[in-house]
Amino acid sequence: MKRHTSPWFAVYGLMVILLGAAALGLMLPGLKADDWQSYVILLAMGMFLEWFVISTPNGDFSLSFVLVFVTFILFGTPATVWISALATVFARGIVNHGHSMKTVLFNGAQYALSALLAGIVYEQAGGQIAPQADKLMASNWLPLAAYVVSYFVTNHLLVNIYAAREQARALYPYWRDVFKLELFTCALSICLGALTVLLYRVIGSAGVFLLLGLIILVNALLKTYFELGLAHRELKALHEIALQASLTLKTGELLHKILHQALKVVKYHTAIIYLWREELEQLVPQVVISNNPNYKAWLENNTVEAGDGLIGQVVRTRQTVIVYDCKRDKLIRRMPGIYQIMRSLLILPMVADDKLVGVMVLGKREPFGFKENQKQLLTIMAGQAALATERALLYEKIENMAITDGLTCIYNHRYFYARLEEEFQRAKRYHHPFSLLLLDVDHFKKFNDTYGHQAGDKVLQRVAKVLTRETRRSDVVARYGGEEFAVLLPNTELSNAVRLANRIRLAIKGEPVEIGSNRPLVSVTVSIGVAQAPIHGHEPGELIEAADRALYHAKGAGRNRVSTAEEAEEVD
To answer: Which residue has the higher pLDDT, 492 or 133?
Structure first.
């Protein structure tokens, strides 16, 4: 599967880069040669701030706005445009974690455009622009507020449009946390920036270096604070998984909740939980979270063989794996579609009591999206998820045994009757018709007497297989008793039910049964009665009786045929 990205986004990225370059050219005459030493110091300060980025589950942030604020207050818009752009390009160009040069240039350009537009808004708001004016005076605070707001709005608008090409943002539900983080960062940056300006005016460039050390110290303290907050969130997520394990017994619902908890401690764009099928030696996708419906559909329909690619190898090694860049990993490239959809992966085996339950895969669009320190926590989380999943699967297995016929592996009479009552209630509420098929294997007693009960069991299994194959997922196929089967068809009128019944009849007749080695295949036929609610019955018992009369009419008319309740009534 090729990754489809709209050409519009490529044009948009190039347009921003060109506009950023134009902004630099426009602001070049405004730079003053006499201030070059201060420019170099501020540029170094900006590069340091870009390097000291703090990662949180809701995004990365730094105190880089300190540079923007200080440069604008001291030297105006031209210097701010140039220094913020160069600091970003130099810093991220050196430490870019695998990002393309286009992305690096885009970041530099969007900072330049944000600074330029904020400067224009500041002037339009009546801000002081004279070289010697004190921009920090109280009378200038309103224009400065306009500057700050317009800078952040422009910055986020440009970045989010660029990020939207990968539909990444919609999977991050914690906008309140992000907003609070941005507000906190902005307020702290303004305070540190104002202090830097005051020190610069008193002791010159040495003040900038002094504040740079303070900013790095504050950054370190903030990093420690957020790491402690993250540790608390991690413990809470582990507790929630343990809690959900005791409250949730539906496997699909449980797995969705597990991925929801994982999102609280690590960002991802796509997530898959495969369950291990021992009898097939396959990983079968159980839950897929992706914002792109095409990717989601593709992932939901692709199993992974044991040993196939890196995900398949985790089945054997049972070791957590981080893929920093899928495009450079040969094993991932052997799995078509995965590396086009996700650029970095975290692959976690779900093991409970030395038994493989499944594999959890978290993916990001960008390379180097996962870090080593996230590996240990999520490995523990995957282990807890495995225990909870195994418990839910065991519960579902026991539950299915209570409603499933042991021989044919389709629903039993008890479950069928419960669903029939539900369908009557739904039909009364929404006025939707539904139909019922009652099916009987012709001359089954004679077949058993001739070929034996084991051969008879094979016939019943073959009929159940055909019924399951020919019907929809919404239909209910059940063994009604002995050689009788029932098929409940929601939202189906009599004419469509008759067509389906004839298709089933022909399919069963056309698939002979092997009754033993060195013995010829034997064909069997079925008779089918069809009734529709509410035409032939307003209650479950009435509808079953109508379908049963139709079935006996089909048998009386020579078997291997389909009859309706109306045809049976005409005979009566």
So the answer is: 492
> Which pLDDT tens digit goes with each residue over 291-316?
777 777 777 778 888 877 788 888 88
State the DSSP string of 121-136. HHHHTT---STT--TT
What is the spatial distance between Cα 167 and Cα 361, in angstroms, rounded to a whole number?
Answer: 18
The pLDDT tens digits for 128-141 are 877 667 788 888 88
Query: Which residue type occupies 358?
Result: G
Unique residue bearing structure tokens 């914002």: 291
Q: Residue 492: what are its φ and ψ, rounded to 5°?
A: -130, 125
**Measured CA angle at 310 (ends 273, 345), to 5 deg:** 60
**pTM for the whole thing?**
0.53
Of 489, 528, 532, whose CA–CA distance to 508 is shortest? 528
CA 281, 282, 287: angle at the middle one, nearest 5?
Answer: 145
What is 36-101 written as a DSSP string? HHHHHHHHHHHHHHHHS-EEETTEEE-STHHHHHHHHHHHHHHHHHHHHHHHHHHHHHHS-TT--H
Q: In what order do the strands lie in the sheet with 434-441?
A: 476-481, 484-490, 434-441, 526-533, 562-564
108, 85 in Cβ contact below 8 A? yes
Q: Is the pLDDT of residue 175 over 70?
A: no
Give percent of the chain with pLDDT exceeding 70: 82
